[in-house]
Design brief:
- It contains five helices and no strands.
- It is mostly helical and about 120 residues long.
- It has one domain.
- Helix 1 crosses helix 3 and helix 3 packs across helix 5.
Length: about 120
């Protein structure tokens, strides 16, 4: 049980760091610009960050659960699809996704997911 919790916490920390770096340093200017064009302010208050922390934790738990039933590669593909493709479909449908981020966000999200899956696989029992 302790190993499983450690794996989930490590994956959560990695996902949180990855999301923060991608969206606050690499892509924030695209998010801000897109939101300004819509007459909105890009949400970056602490509460918004806390929700992303919750998302990171849920994603890590999801990866852990998926990993119990699927191979490493299947866990990676299924987790990425559920974690990112679904999110981008919803955000895109709402009109708040700056599609210009995807050439950078897709490979970085794949990297984020593969490393999170690796951490869960390596540290869980």
């Amino acid at each position: 049980m302790k190993n499983n919790l450690t794996a989930i916490v490590l994956a959560t920390v990695w996902i949180s760091i990855s999301e923060f770096l991608r969206n606050e340093f690499l892509l924030k200017h695209l998010w801000v610009e897109h939101y300004q064009k819509m007459g909105l302010v890009f949400p970056s208050e602490p509460m918004n960050g806390a929700i992303w922390g919750l998302w990171s934790s849920c994603f890590a738990v999801g990866i852990f659960i998926i990993s119990r039933k699927f191979s490493l590669f299947q866990t990676f593909l299924l987790s990425w699809f559920v974690g990112f493709v679904f999110m981008w479909l919803v955000v895109g449908n709402l009109g708040v996704l700056p599609f210009g981020i995807l050439p950078v966000a897709i490979p970085l999200s794949l990297l984020e997911t593969v490393l999170a899956v690796y951490l869960v696989n390596k540290f869980s029992s």
